[in-house]
Amino acid sequence: MGRLKRRKPNDYFAMFSQGAAISQRAARALEHALSSGNVDTEEMRAIKKIEHEGDTHVHRSLDEIEKAFITPFDSEKMADIVRGIENLTDAIDQISRHFYMMRIQTTDPFIEKFVALLIETTDHLVNLTNNMHDHKRHPDIVKQAIIEINHVENIGDQTYQQAVYELFDGTKDAIDVFRLHTLYDQLESALDVCEDIADNIETILITLS
């Protein structure tokens, strides 16, 4: 008999909470690495370690889901959530690597805004995943977390539009335009990934209601 057959159903939801917590730590590590307005390369390396932790977590989780006899809902949908959260951690790691590869040494107000939004959205994701197991008794908590994640993504869209608009005002060096445009793309995409996770969870929870 496998170990998972004796687990309580809500233990499976811990997979999502743990993955979201890893993404949250990666976002906070990014914020810390940029907190002085300059890029702290040593702090950026910490994000890669967190990303490796995320890889280990997703592989372990997928293995447990595959071996499970009974799961709270469809195992493929569970795996999709686990992978989606890991995609968010990967996206944050990609952002940190872009700073290094493109030799970006300082931040700007748009980068700082995006990072603040990334912190906010990962906080909401942690709240969402922490309450998934209790969604029937406290649906408003889960619903509000999903609404907040979508709201943050909308602000991210607006921030991106303004950032790119100002980027092409003709005063910046072409190389800087390329560097920053790519970085803005990655920051905005990370917010999109979080929204996709929330939307996926919402769809699943509707079927369980």
Question: What's the quick description here?
Answer:
The chain is an all-alpha fold and 209 residues long.
How would you describe what is shown here?
- With 209 residues, the protein is mostly helical.
- It has one domain: Phosphate transport system protein phou homolog 2, domain 2 (Methane Monooxygenase Hydroxylase, Chain G, domain 1), CATH 1.20.58.
- Helices cover 79% and strands 0% of the residues.
- The chain has 6 helices and no strands.
- Helix 1 runs antiparallel to helix 4, helix 2 packs antiparallel against helix 3 and helix 3 packs antiparallel against helix 6.
- The longest helix has 35 residues.
- The protein is globular and about 60 Å long.
- The two termini are 31 Å apart.
Topology:
Layout: H1 9-33, H2 41-67, H3 75-101, H4 109-131, H5 139-167, H6 174-208
Helix pairs in contact: 1-2, 1-3, 1-4, 2-3, 3-6, 4-5, 4-6, 5-6
Look at the structure and give the mean pLDDT.
Answer: 90
Sheet of most strands: none
Highest CATH level, the class: Mainly Alpha
How many distinct helices? Answer: 6
The fraction of residues in strands falls at under 5%
The shape, in one word, is globular
- The number of strands is 0
Distance between the termini: 31 Å
**How would you name the CATH homologous superfamily?**
Phosphate transport system protein phou homolog 2, domain 2
- Order of helices and strands, N to C? HHHHHH
Kindly name the structural category. mainly alpha
Q: Percent of residues in helical segments?
A: over 70%
The CATH architecture designation is: Up-down Bundle
Radius of gyration: 18 Å
Total count of domains: 1
Low-confidence stretches: 1-10
CATH T-level fold name: Methane Monooxygenase Hydroxylase, Chain G, domain 1
